[in-house]
Amino acid sequence: MLVIEGRAYLEGQLESVALGIEDGTIVAIKKTLRGDETYRFGDAILLPGGIDVHVHFREPGKTHKEDFASGTESAAVGGVTTVVDMPNTRPPVTKGDVLREKLRVVSRHANVDFGLYGAPASAADVKSLADAIAYKVYLAETTDAPLIRDDAALADLLAGVASTKTYMSVHAEDPSRFQSLPAKKLEDYHRARPPEAERSAIETVGRLRGEARVHIAHVTTAEAVKARPAGATCEVTPHHLLLSTASPIGARGKVNPPLRPIAERENLWREVVAGSVDMFASDHAPHTLDEKSVPFDEAPAGVPGVATTFPVLFRYVRRDVLPLPQFVAMFSENPAKLLRVNKGTLAVGRDADLIVVDPRRIEKMTARRCRYKCGWTPFEGAESTFPFATFVRGQLVSQEGELVTESAGRLITPSEL
Ligand code: DOR
Ligand code: ZN
Question: Which pTM value belongs to this model?
Answer without folding.
Answer: 0.98
